[in-house]
Write a structure and sequence with these properties.
Elements lengths: L2 E3 L1 H11 L12 H11 L2 E2 L9 H7 L7 H10 L3 E5 L3 E5 L3 H21 L9 H11 L24 H11 L3 E7 L2 E6 H4 L2 H4 L5 H16 L4 H8 L4 H9 L6 E6 L6 E6 L3 H6 L8 E3 L10 H8 L20 E6 L2 E11 L4 E9 L7 H17 L4 E3 L2 H5 L11
Parallel strand pairs: 1-7, 12-13
Antiparallel strand pairs: 2-4, 3-4, 5-6, 7-8, 9-10, 10-11, 11-12
């Protein structure tokens, strides 16, 4: 008999596994933040700071007594976390470093071929030179290395000079690690001087690596297709995950998960005791929380739409005239529902969180209680972002016409 999981239960389990089940108002310390990142798996890093950078907002949305210095201490002083690559730049528990060694070996060849194909010539040839500089001089910023030539092309990421490209290559392939950041710029040092010895020297076999990559991904997701398992860490191809889920040693069984609109379902893989697990889940907090666009809940857009009926994309790279909402719009979570999105930006000059627009999902009522709850969250975010207050025009906050997302979006 196939296990069937209704949509509400699936959403609850998914949010629990993504760290959104505990009371966000509870006090926390560095150990709590370490444990939170361990339970989520990793936290994505992103440079955009219209309000607050992604990694800080991801942690704040779950522990609203979180302080920026807690993460800095875990990364730079205790080294219980390190920065590297999953699907993107991320903060990862240092105990997982032995598994990342398998990624480094694979990426050293793949990245070199891909980046040189994209026009970044010459960075591999200077690797020994840059490594020697770091060994002798210690933590090195890109600005410390004078480019020998100007690389023509469009401004942006791929305008890197060979020295900067080499620094990123050495980092992505494990030769160096990020020791600290200043104004968000990375300082690179030799990995053995950054990663704690017990993790740097740790080894796992290829078979152990493959099993961990699949089993830990499934644990963090709660239920998943083999493609979702492969995509979580972005460490193994879907074919490997497909073989793993079908192997009896995985301990998984097939199940059907109901979609948000209850009109369809899809097959996923679950633990046999998933019904008992769901029954033991605590009630989700009812507080409104504004999520980072890079929150792990939203990383897999198809999964988010299937579970929450929430169609979301980041429009940073969409031409302004073609944007449906805005440059950097934040999703709004309440309980087990994604109820809308908000366009807001920090006005540092006037120390104000400026709310430009709010859109609610069709099924969400714009009640006085919900307005009050959102105002409270805006106040908390403003305070966390070192702003004095928030601001919105009456038209933005009161007009029902501006708050409803079309059904045919």
């Amino acid at each position: 008999m196939t296990i069937f999981i209704d949509n509400k239960s699936a959403r609850r389990l998914f949010l629990h596994r993504h760290g959104l089940a505990q009371n966000p108002a509870s006090r926390c310390n560095k150990t709590d933040i370490q444990n939170l990142i361990e339970s989520i798996g990793f936290v994505q890093v992103d440079s955009i700071k219209t309000v607050e950078r992604a990694h800080h907002l991801i942690l704040f949305s779950r522990r609203q007594t979180y302080k920026h210095a807690m993460l800095a201490d875990l990364l730079e002083k205790e080294a219980s976390l390190f920065e590297n690559w999953t699907h993107d730049a991320s903060i990862i528990p240092s105990r997982l470093y032995p598994y990342w060694k398998h990624k480094f070996g694979k990426d050293s060849i793949a990245i070199a071929k891909r980046w040189e194909k994209w026009g970044r010539k010459g960075f591999v040839e200077i690797s020994d030179q840059i490594t020697q500089h770091i060994e002798n001089q210690g933590p090195t910023f890109s600005r410390d290395l004078k480019p020998e030539e100007k690389i023509p092309g469009k401004p942006g990421w791929w305008d890197w000079h060979p020295q900067k490209t080499c620094l990123e290559y050495l980092w992505r392939t494990g030769k160096t690690a990020v020791s600290h950041r200043r104004n968000f710029q990375k300082a690179y040092d030799l990995s053995e001087r950054v990663i704690p010895a017990q993790h740097f020297e740790g080894e796992v076999s290829h078979e152990q690596f493959l099993h961990w990559a699949c089993s830990s991904a499934h644990q963090h997701l709660g239920f998943a297709t083999h493609g979702e398992i492969a995509a979580f860490w972005n460490l193994v191809p879907p074919a490997i995950a497909k073989s793993w889920v079908k192997n009896p040693d995985s301990g998984l069984v097939p199940a059907e998960i109901q979609s948000f609109d209850k009109k369809s379902s899809k097959q996923v893989w679950v633990r046999p005791d998933i019904a008992e697990t769901i029954c033991q889940l605590s009630k989700l907090p009812g507080r409104i929380r504004i999520l980072s666009p890079f929150d792990p809940v939203l990383r897999d857009r198809k999964r988010t739409q299937f579970l929450f009926g929430f169609n979301y994309r980041i429009e940073v790279f969409v031409p302004e005239a073609k944007r449906q909402y805005g440059y950097y719009v934040f999703p709004i979570l309440q309980g087990d529902r994604l109820i809308g999105r908000i366009d807001m930006k920090a006005d540092r000059k006037n120390s104000i969180l400026n709310v430009r627009q709010i859109w609610l999902e069709q099924s969400t009522k714009w009640s006085d209680a919900r307005k009050s709850a959102l105002k409270s969250e805006l106040k908390r975010i403003a305070r966390f972002s070192d702003l004095n207050d928030y601001y919105f025009s009456s038209d933005v906050f009161e007009s029902s016409k501006t708050h409803r997302i079309p059904k045919n979006r």
